[in-house]
């Protein structure tokens, strides 16, 4: 297995900031990264689904990769999402991410739409090709969006046989159950059992053995103590803090999706626009008002960072 000491903590997804006309807003994207570092994050993930990676051209991906690694400048580790259906392109993306300074890559299994996907052998070969192409850790993202069933035996096989595969972001229905089963079956080969989906099931997932979470960039400063207190053995403190912020997390996840962070960061002066790319549409104003009301009650860093 990769000899790097296991990463624990919170590794949020950076949103991609656009101008009102839909162009990349480079200055706002730099400010997003600086804000996230001031949130006290353990590391930053870029070009993920929450980053609207599926709405970016290849040239824009390259712009964001270069901008992000230069702006972060080694202050925290950086995870780059390099998913693609084509194994060849996924390999090229992973190699480029490592070349640019990524400390880890995160990937979904190969899929296209709802019907084109690989079987277990194809998934293994896909990740094996990336494993052979890079020397940094690989995180497998197990999310409903792919429609691919990543079974526990397949995940454990990859953890045991592919040196760089040791981190797993599980965000399927019943995440806690799958995390528990993965850890029990994989043992020490599972160096980083994480959850995601805006940390909406974090307490159950920590109870199941998760050691990290990949939230949005809306309130990682308020989620981080939950993980730290739990891992220190103070579950009561972790639960008390989580209960304070759960209404905001739930509202983000169920009402707003990836638009939530942008709305809060716009309100807090981090970014100049909360634009999303069509066919996504802006948050309805009543929904945005409800989000900001809950945010003001817990006052995350992003709400006031740029004011």
Description:
Helix 5 (152-161) crosses helix 6 (175-186). The longest helix is centred in the C-terminal third of the chain and has 22 residues, at 235-256. By secondary structure, this protein is of the alpha/beta class. It is built from eleven helices and ten strands. The radius of gyration is 18 Å and the shape is globular. The strands form two sheets. The protein has an eight-stranded parallel β-sheet with strand order 1-10-9-8-7-4-3-2. The protein has a two-stranded antiparallel ribbon with strand order 5-6. Helix 3 links the parallel strand 3 (78-81) and strand 4 (104-107). The model has no long low-confidence stretch (mean pLDDT 97). It has helices at 26-38, 58-72, 87-100, 120-133, 152-161, 175-186, 202-207, 220-231, 235-256, 259-267, 285-298, and strands at residues 9-10, 44-46, 78-81, 104-107, 111-112, 116-117, 138-142, 165-170, 192-195, 212-213. It has a single domain (9-302), classed as Aldolase class I (TIM Barrel, Alpha-Beta Barrel).
Shape: globular
Average per-residue pLDDT, rounded, comes to 97
Secondary-structure-based class equals alpha/beta
Largest sheet: 8 strands, parallel
Strand content: 5-15%
| Order of adjacent strands in the largest pleated sheet | 1-10-9-8-7-4-3-2
Percent helix range: 40-55%
Which CATH first-tier class would you pick?
Alpha Beta
What's the SSE pattern?
Answer: EHEHEHEEEHEHEHEHEHHHH
How many β-strands, per DSSP?
A: 10
Rounded to the nearest angstrom, the distance between the terminal CA atoms is 45 Å
Low-confidence stretches: none
CATH arch. level architecture: Alpha-Beta Barrel
CATH H level: which superfamily? Aldolase class I
With helices defined by DSSP (H or I, 4 residues minimum), what is the helix count? 11
């Amino acid at each position: 297995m990769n000899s790097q000491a296991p990463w624990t903590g919170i590794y949020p997804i950076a949103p991609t900031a656009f101008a009102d006309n839909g162009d990349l807003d480079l200055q706002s994207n730099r400010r997003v990264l600086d804000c996230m570092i001031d949130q006290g994050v353990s590391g930053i993930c870029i070009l993920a689904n929450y980053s609207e990676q599926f709405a970016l051209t290849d040239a824009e991906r390259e712009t964001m990769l270069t901008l992000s690694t230069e702006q972060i400048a080694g202050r925290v580790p950086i995870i780059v999402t390099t998913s693609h259906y084509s194994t060849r392109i996924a390999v090229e993306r992973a190699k480029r991410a490592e070349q640019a300074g990524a400390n880890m890559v995160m990937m979904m299994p190969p899929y296209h739409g709802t019907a084109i996907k690989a079987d277990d052998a194809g998934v293994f070969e896909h990740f094996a090709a990336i494993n052979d192409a890079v020397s940094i850790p690989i995180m497998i993202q197990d999310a409903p969006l792919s429609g691919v069933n990543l079974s526990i035996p397949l995940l454990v096989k990859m953890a045991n046989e592919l040196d760089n595969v040791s981190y797993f972001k599980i965000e399927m229905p019943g995440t806690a159950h799958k995390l528990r089963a993965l850890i029990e079956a994989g043992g020490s080969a599972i160096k980083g059992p994480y959850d995601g989906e805006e940390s909406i099931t974090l307490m159950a997932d920590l109870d199941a053995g998760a050691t990290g979470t990949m939230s949005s960039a809306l309130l990682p400063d308020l989620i981080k103590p939950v993980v730290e207190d739990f891992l220190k053995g103070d579950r009561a403190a972790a639960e008390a803090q989580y209960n304070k912020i759960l209404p905001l997390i739930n509202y983000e996840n169920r009402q707003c999706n990836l638009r939530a962070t942008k709305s809060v960061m716009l309100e807090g002066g981090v970014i100049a626009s909360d634009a999303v790319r069509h066919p996504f549409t802006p948050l309805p104003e009543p929904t945005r008002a409800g989000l900001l009301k809950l945010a003001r009650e817990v006052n995350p860093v992003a709400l006031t960072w740029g004011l």
